[in-house]
Write a structure and sequence with these properties.
ACP_syn_III_N, Peroxisomal Thiolase, Chain A, domain 1, 15 strands, five-stranded mixed β-sheet, four-stranded mixed β-sheet, 362 residues, alpha+beta, 26% strand, single chain
Length: 362
């Protein structure tokens, strides 16, 4: 194996849904507690507290005519356009998601055929050696797809890999659960390629962990909190407090492990792109990370760009969408330029988490 070959991102794309859903959308919802009783607080107060904690003011939902594989295909087209490569030269298409295609009129998950196969069909790729498969790994799934792509490329079994994250969480959330205000839809894609270099570039290191003991079901599926809604339908449920406490303990350490695996320190990192489910949680993770380096009082104000305020939590789409916006100069005062050293990090159901250290080629 040639150690001078590195995995680099050569292009990116995204699909940001057109429906803007502000917090006011939830003013007339009836929210229930876990015990099936209606919450006593008025919705205006619930929403204000929610916004204060999560930082979310609006989120995006897909229109009724679209499903997850559709928007994955649109993000893939955007990524291919940014590179100009022939899609027939892709060795793998990896699509990270958690709920498959869910139609607006039939809220049941559809996994067959694989969403990756649907995207390949959408793109019109004929090459049978373009292997298409799905990856379900919670909100950290897209980043795990990047890690798998790096293994394929470093082993010499692939030269080009497309990794897509796509989700329509608006179709699996319980409208009677206040946590439903967190979730959003979206899709993002990157294309990775093998590149020879005399100096380290691209993916420098990665770390992945699974905590499946008492944390395995911190996120899972359950009935609506409204006992008279949904029948036997299952909705995404989260023990937010337990997830927050675990993430604060484990995610900073995972990021630190990844940075040190690349023989770097926090001072070498220009940007931290972290999965965004809760603004306060991510800010606490960042402070704890810098605290581990004895630099809790000098956290750079612009090191962790956030889109959660207007895009919400789109699960596996969060990171590739954020990267795409920054790479194309569409994020005000937040760009990724040549030579930038970035850490990607994510945590999600499982509980699964991972991190990647990445240096943009000069």
């Amino acid at each position: 194996m040639d150690t001078n070959f590195f995995t680099v991102i050569i292009g990116s794309g995204s699909y940001i849904p057109t429906l803007r859903i502000s917090n006011d959308h939830f003013l007339n919802h009836v929210f229930y507690d876990k015990d099936g009783t209606v919450l006593s607080k008025v919705n205006k107060d619930i929403i204000q507290q929610f916004c204060k904690i999560t930082g979310i003011r609006e989120r995006r939902y897909v229109s009724d005519d679209l499903v997850a594989s559709d928007i994955a295909g649109l993000a893939a087209e955007d990524a291919l356009k940014s590179t100009g490569i022939d899609p027939e030269t892709l060795d793998y298409i990896i699509v990270a998601h958690n709920f498959g295609d869910i139609k607006a009129e039939n809220r049941r998950s559809d996994f067959v055929p694989a969403l990756a196969s649907r995207v390949k069909h959408h793109l019109g790729i004929i090459n049978p050696l373009t292997v298409a498969y799905d990856l379900t790994w919670g909100c950290a799934g897209w980043l795990q797809g990047i890690i798998q792509a790096d293994y394929f490329i470093k082993s010499g079994s692939a030269k080009r890999v497309m990794v897509i994250g796509t989700e329509t969480l608006s179709r699996v959330c319980d409208p009677h659960d206040r946590d439903s205000m967190i979730y959003a839809d979206g899709a993002g894609a990157v294309i990775l390629e093998a590149r020879h270099s005399s100096v380290p570039i691209g993916i420098l290191s990665h770390v992945a962990k699974s905590y499946a003991d008492d944390l395995a079901y911190v996120l899972g599926m359950g009935c609506s909190y409204n006992p008279n809604f949904g029948g036997d339908a299952l909705f995404l449920k989260m023990n937010g407090r337990k997830l927050y406490e675990n993430a604060l303990k484990t995610v900073p350490l995972t990021i630190k492990d990844c940075i040190e695996k690349a023989s770097l320190s926090i001072l070498d990192i220009d940007k931290l792109l972290i999965h965004q489910a809760n603004e306060k949680m991510d800010e606490a993770i960042l402070r704890e990370l810098f605290n581990m380096y004895g630099r809790e009082h000098v956290v750079p104000t612009d090191i962790m760009p956030m889109t959660i305020s207007w895009l919400g939590n789109s699960s596996v789409a969060t990171l590739p969408t954020l990267f795409d916006l920054m790479s194309k100069g569409e994020f005000v005062n937040q760009q990724i330029t040549k030579g930038t050293t970035v850490v990607f990090a994510a945590v999600g159901a499982g509980v699964n988490m991972n991190a990647i250290t990445y240096r943009v080629p000069s």
